[in-house]
Amino acid sequence: MLDKEKTILVVDDIQPSRETVINCLRVLGYKNTREAADGKEALEVLEKSQDIQLVISDWKMPRMNGVDLLRSMRSESRWEDLPFIFLTSKSESEDVAEASDLGVTEYMIKPLSIDVFAEKVDSLGSGNPRQKLSTVLKGVKKDCSRKDFSRAVTRLTGLLEELPSMRSRIYFEMASVYFQAGEIKRARAVVEQALSINHLLGKAWFLKAELEKEEQNWQEARASLNRALEIQPRNADYFLCLGDTLLYLEDNMKARESFQRAMNIAPEEDWIKTRTWDIYLKHDLCREAEASFGSLLINCLSSDVLNNYAVALRKKGEMARAVELYAVALKKDPDNPGLLFNAAVSDYYNGNFRRAVNRLERAIELQPGFAQAEAFLKKLTKES
């Protein structure tokens, strides 16, 4: 049971809907409530309040919807186990599956039924299945970090009878452990068990795709990723993995579309662009990445990544492009002696003698005793 004295946060952009939920809570004996009109406001309340024991949220809301609120909460250790109930008019199986993947505790369809509502709320507390699984998963994570995979599997196996309603999730976690242990065939068998119980578990389809990729079954991986994206069409990780798979299949045009869709999900997130670049780099297709996405990718890369790419281009004799990349890198990190030295080398071979000298002098000023820079500057001085 929840603590009648602690607070429940009700999130909905429609005030009468919030009032209906709050009135039901009062009938059940829960007198302390807080309200929020959208996900952003809910996060602000959570930041300031230490006694929130449950969040009840609508799905569709302005600024930040309920799914993004749930995703934000589950990404924070302080809220990852906090019970979360969706009370929404969205009843499609794909919606329920997405919420389940993100870690919703209960899912209720509007209009509100007081009997069902009472049953769901009163069943929560320290003994609810999600919190039990979450506690065990913390131990599993520690086991895996110590490479004690057999102990991790034993922990999860013990939950199968104790938490029958979460068997698909438990099998998924067990398959993930086997994957980390390098037991690919066993992982595939267990993830199939998870999907046989709940074929709408998007993360299980994603894991199945990763397992197929390990055995270079590219077409099977592609099919599994497409299935995952049918369930969760706004998952950037799935699109990135699909793009990687399509590059292995040499379907570069479709791969580009997949990467673009990943970026469109969260245009402000540089990690998506960086991951896209890393995938193209792995396939030795950096030039294609540049041609496809241009400055969109280049501008988000770190100075170290840009430096490494410029060095590779310089070795291939593409001096002009290397010089351009160093210019971008130095805007990000103008006082990096190593970067200044490499940029000076490219300037020299590209015919810009004066700028090469200036950059070498600056590198030596920043790092006295920089032998390579001093030797190269001496060489340039003699040539002049």
UniProtKB/TrEMBL annotation:
Residues 7-125 form the Response regulatory domain. TPR repeats lie at residues 202-235, 236-269, 303-336. The modification 4-aspartylphosphate is found at residue 58. Keywords: Phosphoprotein, TPR repeat. Pfam families: Response_reg, TPR_16, TPR_19. One of its GO terms (biological process) is phosphorelay signal transduction system. SMART domains: REC, TPR. PANTHER family: RESPONSE REGULATORY DOMAIN-CONTAINING PROTEIN (PTHR44591:SF3), STRESS RESPONSE REGULATOR PROTEIN 1 (PTHR44591). This is Response regulator receiver protein. It comes from Desulfonatronospira thiodismutans ASO3-1.
